[in-house]
Structure formats: structure tokens, C-alpha cells
Design a protein that fits this description.
This protein is an alpha/beta fold and 541 residues long. It contains 16 helices and 17 strands. Helix 11 (382-403) packs across helix 15 (477-494).
């Protein structure tokens, strides 16, 4: 379901639930207020200065992994004025949680705070299709394979997961500098540095600048010359969360979920109908939902997506969307009706076609997370990919510095730090194709949930299950760097003409012949009655 939005908590001032998820106090994670705890073994120092822009999941994990790898993190710049706790549920897959095996305190926190839940699938009128079941990566046979790694819960509470990262950043002595809005990125290939200029006019430079400041990052102007055009992904989402005690005031909601809540159980559900699907989490603490209708670009009679990032939509508008289909289960209508006035976000799911290049010409500025690649909630992998990026980049930088592998021009030799641009380019090479395939899974899942052939689903209920494919969660980004670095180095530094065969990534669906794709192609196929899943080659299971 991804991150669905935010609302407040009971008993706080203002409108009902106005304090449930709020901006945090920047002083809470001042490193002077935190003891180191149990730190991981740090690799030898590389003398590489790294500046991180953005203090979301990608930026914080990049800073932590760069610190662990021996790099000198010279700053973490964040445009907001404190930690932003908006959001509710995120899915962090095994390929990302594997990184926490190096971080004892975070590993303990993850295991102590895991939220187990069942997952069930329903038609929009309340008929059970499948469940209770688990996310694919938590099938028993796969859990045995991950013995010794951190437990991977079906979902994480975003606020708590984010605070865990902030605490660890403070424990290693790093400070997030809030209120630092970056206006531009630059690169000086002669001086072998990248840099940024903030809104206040401050200039910061480093050997490597990591753009982790999401999809409107100004690094795109340096790397590509312009921002990637945004287009509708064919969907939008009405999203919010609320204290469960508010939802329990509705009789239909209470009749359906009240007993499970009283037993302290968490329900994770998907509801589906023609042209629409809904993700829902009901816990004793809070209830979150995201209703995703197809919009007018792909669904006859669909709504036109309107970009609005403020929670200013009333329940009545969402109920009208639900009424495009008759016979919704009264509990779903009751849940929406219980949402406080003006507390729903209508968020258009905008898409930016993936660009191949995530690094500047000289390799001193590099993008991670949403700054490099869009994600949609239906993929349930945005946070996972961001952490994979961080782990991969930090490891590539360490190996490139150890090898002294070429400067901005990509030649051999150097004093270690000069090899960093090769590291950023190898990171890009290892990540681009995998991310492209993961992005496509968003459209596979969206089709399964909102455009399913219900007769086929009744015959084969497992086909409704949200896909968490083996090739996606059977991946260790750190080990992959060690496995592929030599081949990738030959590709990046020596050039294709000096190799016997083209570099091939193996972190993709087995048997898949990679080909770049665009949202325009997906929409054209949809108009012609072709499903994304039917056009996939290789094993995407």
C-alpha cells in the first residue's frame, strides 16, 4: 500500500486527530543528546568527503552506510525545518532489511517493533477472494533461507522506522542540518568536487554529493539539463490515516473490525473492483487507507487527477468515487464516512520515465532514491529500493577508493579519492536495470488489483495476490557489489570495445532480456487490451 498520508491523534488540540502525525523537533536527534550505543565495525577510512542532500529514508541510510564504509560524511542537508513524520505504513523488503545486520541497535529495534499481520483480499462488496495469507517474502520456506538476518515484518510504521534511522544517525555523531533548501547543484571537474548552493547563498562542496532530495531535485538540471516531464500513471489515490478510536464510532466499521481490534490484531487488506482498488490497514492504534481509482487517461468515466498535496478533501467526495461501483461493503463506506472533514489527501500518481544516467558528467554528483527513480504505492518497493541504493552506493565508493580507480575522466590510477567518480558510475550501472524492472511491478500489481478478470480470479485466487517476486527479495545489494564490481569496473573504465562481452546484471528476473520502457508504452498497451504481465519475458514470479 505504501505510505498513505497522515492525520492527528485524539486528545490533541485542533481538529480531531490533528496531532497524530506531526513534524518533529529537530533538537530531538542532536548527536550531543545520544550515546553511541553498539556501533558496527567501521571500515578503514577512505578520506572521501560525502555530502548528502535530503534526510528521508534514502538520505539517512546513505549517510549511515557511507559512515560505516569509512567515508567522511561532511553534512546532511534537509529543506524542512524538522523531521517530517507524515505517512503511516511502509513495506521494507528483505533485500533492504539485510543491511541492518551490520547495525546491532537498529536490528534490535526492528525485531522489537515489528508489526505482524495477516493479509486478505476481498471484492468491493465484501466477498473473500484469498486469505488470510502472508506477503510472499514471508512464506515459511523463504524465512528459513534468511536465518540470521533481521526479521522482515509485513509492514513498518513509517514514523517509528524513520525515527530509528534518525537515532542511529545521531549515535554515530552525524547531525541533520534542517532548513537548508538546495537551489542548485554544480560540479568542478578540474577541482574534482561537486557542490550545492542553498537558498541562503551558502556553498557546500565535497568529493561526492548525493542527491537524495526526492523527485523535484535540482540535481536533474545538472545531470540531464531539465526535470523529467511528469505524466499521470493512470491512477490517483485518496489517502489518509486516523486514530482507530475515531473509526470505531461508525457502527459498520465496528461490526466488521471491532472484535479483531479488541484482540489486538492488525488486519492488512486489499479490496478490489473494476477500475479501482483499496489498500487498508486496521490496527488498535490507527487505521489507514488508500483508495486508488483509475483516472480518465485509462478508464472510461474515470476522474481527472488534480495535483493537491494538502489534506483538504472531504469524505463525501471519496464516497462519490466509490459510488461509481454499486454495492460497496458498508464497512468500507463507514470507514470513509468516519474520516474527519478535510483530512483526506487526493494525490495524483505522477510518473517520470526512468533516466539511464543518475550521475553528473564528472561523476561527483549522484542521485539515490526518488531523486533517481519514481515509485508508485502499488510496487510496495519504494523504500526498499531507496535502501538498496544507499547500500550499493556506499560499497561502490569504498571499493573505488581502495582501488584508486580513475578520476573524472574514468582512467586508471589515482590516490583513492580520485576513484570516487568510477564508484558512482558503477553504482548507476548496477542499479538502473533492476530499478526499471521493479518499477514495472507497480503496473502488474495495479492490474491485478483493479483490472482483474474476476472469473479467472475465482478459479485461481492466488492470482490476486500482490506480487513480491523472488528476484526482488532474493537479493543482497552489498554482496552483489562484491560479486559484480570487477566486471562493472571493466565496463565503466575500459569501455565496451575492450571487453569480449557486454556487462550483464543478474539482479533482474531470470531469463529477462532487459529493454527500457516508458509509461506511454504501458498506456498504449492498456488501450489495446494488453496487460503488462502478459508481455513480460523471463521469470518474474
Amino acid at each position: 500500500m505504501g505510505s498513505l498520508g497522515s492525520l492527528g491523534s485524539p486528545g490533541s488540540p485542533g481538529s480531531p486527530g490533528s496531532g497524530y502525525f506531526v513534524d518533529g523537533n529537530p533538537c530531538d536527534f542532536d548527536p550531543d543528546r545520544w550515546e553511541p550505543g553498539t556501533l558496527p565495525k567501521r571500515h578503514p577510512k577512505t578520506d572521501l568527503d560525502v555530502l548528502v542532500v535530503g534526510a528521508g529514508l534514502a538520505g539517512l541510510m546513505t549517510a549511515l552506510e557511507c559512515w560505516r564504509r569509512g567515508h567522511n560524511v561532511v553534512g546532511i542537508l534537509e529543506r524542512s525545518h524538522g523531521p517530517v513524520y507524515a505517512g503511516d505504513i511502509i513495506v521494507i523488503g528483505p533485500s533492504a532489511t539485510a543491511a541492518f545486520r551490520h547495525w546491532p541497535d537498529m536490528m534490535r529495534e526492528l525485531e522489537a517493533d515489528q508489526h505482524d499481520s495477516t493479509m486478505s483480499y476481498y471484492t468491493h462488496d465484501g466477498e473473500l477472494i484469498l486469505g488470510p495469507t502472508q506477503l510472499g517474502f514471508n512464506d515459511p520456506k523463504y524465512m528459513l533461507e534468511r536465518e540470521g538476518h533481521p526479521v522482515t515484518a509485513p509492514h513498518q510504521v513509517r514514523r517509528k522506522f524513520f525515527q530509528m534511522l534518525l537515532r542511529q544517525v545521531a549515535r554515530v555523531g552525524l547531525r541533520v542540518e534542517y532548513g537548508q533548501q538546495v537551489e542548485s547543484y554544480f560540479e568542478d571537474e578540474t577541482a574534482r568536487v561537486g557542490g550545492v548552493v542553498t537558498k541562503s547563498g551558502n556553498i557546500r562542496v565535497a568529493d561526492v554529493v548525493v542527491a537524495a532530495d526526492a523527485n523535484k531535485t535540482k540535481s536533474a538540471l545538472l545531470i540531464a539539463g531539465c526535470h523529467a516531464p511528469t505524466q499521470s500513471a493512470g491512477m490517483s489515490v485518496y489517502r489518509t490515516s486516523m486514530p482507530t478510536e475515531l473509526a470505531l464510532q461508525n457502527d459498520a466499521f465496528r461490526n466488521r473490525w471491532g472484535a479483531a481490534i479488541a484482540r489486538n490484531e492488525i488486519s492488512h487488506e486489499f479490496w478490489t473492483g473494476p477500475g479501482i482498488h483499496m489498500g487498508l490497514v486496521v490496527s488498535p492504534e490507527f487505521t489507514a487507507y488508500g483508495i486508488t481509482p483509475r483516472d480518465s487517461t485509462v478508464h472510461t468515466g474515470g476522474i481527472k487527477p488534480i495535483e493537491s498535496w494538502k489534506p483538504d478533501v472531504d469524505a463525501a467526495e471519496v464516497i462519490k468515487v466509490l459510488q461509481r461501483l454499486p454495492d460497496w461493503d458498508p464497512a468500507v463506506v463507514g470507514l470513509v464516512s468516519a474520516t474527519p472533514k478535510g483530512r483526506i489527501i487526493h494525490w495524483p500518481l505522477l510518473w517520470r520515465n526512468l533516466r539511464r544516467e543518475w550521475t553528473s558528467k564528472g561523476g561527483h554528483v549522484v542521485q539515490v532514491g526518488e531523486a533517481a527513480h519514481s515509485s508508485l504505492p502499488a510496487s510496495a518497493s519504494g523504500g526498499t529500493l531507496a535502501i538498496e541504493d544507499a547500500v550499493t552506493l556506499a560499497a561502490c565508493l569504498q571499493l573505488s577508493c581502495a582501488a584508486g580507480s580513475g578520476g573524472g575522466g574514468g582512467g586508471g590510477g589515482g590516490d583513492g579519492v580520485t576513484g570516487a567518480p568510477t564508484g558512482t558510475r558503477i553504482y548507476n550501472l548496477l542499479r538502473y536495470e533492476r530499478v526499471s524492472c521493479a518499477q514495472k511491478m507497480a503496473f502488474v500489481n495495479a492490474e491485478a488489483l483493479g483490472d482483474a478478470d474476476m472469473d479467472e480470479i475465482k478459479r485461481h485466487p492466488d492470482k490476486i495476490r500482490v506480487r513480491f517476486p523472488k528476484w526482488l527479495f532474493h537479493h543482497d545489494p552489498e554482496e552483489y557489489v562484491y560479486e559484480k564490481y570487477g566486471q562493472a569496473f571493466a565496463h565503466v573504465v575500459l569501455g565496451r570495445e575492450r571487453k569480449k562481452k557486454k556487462f550483464q546484471n543478474t539482479n533482474l528476473p531470470p531469463g529477462h532480456l532487459f529493454k527500457p520502457w516508458t509509461i506511454e508504452e504501458v498506456r498504449e498497451d492498456a488501450r489495446n487490451g494488453k496487460r503488462v504481465e502478459d508481455l513480460l519475458d523471463g521469470d518474474w514470479s
